[in-house]
């Protein structure tokens, strides 16, 4: 049975590109689910680096001359209503997901989502932690698939301490892959605790030059791709998800040796289900650096832009943040 909430809600909005201060909490009309959609009461969202880039105006060729109305790709919450052509049995279920759109506006009390883009949250996982995983988890699965690395093979992850990297380390380790990471010196033990067998500091890559070659490299940073490409075994693959790596990826088509592959994730229910299975088996846990109340989303963006990440910044939309 559908339970339609109030006619207005709180949501993060901004009307111009700029610094984190442009993000405001506004009272806006409640969305209504259309055919094939569900209405989700969002308990938590999270901040991804690309959202900070969109907000700052760095993605205007793709996001448009005027900014999107809202922000936020990830969500975790409860289905409170179902539109036409959707099973009412979904109402009351805890769900999570991501829309992967530059104009996504999921940092809001209520959102409408196409039913195929939501999946059940793993039992026992708190919604505030669940919100940290959809975008980074799906991206990690896609990157690992593109790298085509197998059990017992060696994988180097560059930029490993952030949201995607922390998920990728855990998933690859669970699959029996021998994981090595490149991160800042402060994050070496953090990466090791997540499952990395070898850890290297960005600031001193001499040790990496002496390491055994790798079957695959996944780059999340976009710099020094030539160096990491040279550490591949014959027939190895290098995959980049960083926008800064796109130019080198195109250049690699003209160079001898392996080409740099670009990987991009899309929202897929089957991957959300796979993520849930990894969480339930204990092979994957959300890495949350800090939880912010909705009103402090600007501070969360500022923290993401600092570049010093250990996992995700989560925005708690419903309820109070635990101290």
TrEMBL record:
Domain annotation Enoyl reductase (ER): ranges: 18-315
Stretches that traverse the bilayer: none
MF annotations from Gene Ontology: oxidoreductase activity
Coiled coil start-end: none
Domain of life: Bacteria
PANTHER family according to UniProt: ALCOHOL DEHYDROGENASE RELATED (PTHR11695), RETICULON-4-INTERACTING PROTEIN 1, MITOCHONDRIAL (PTHR11695:SF294)
Record-given protein name: Zinc-binding dehydrogenase
Protein source organism: Streptomyces mimosae
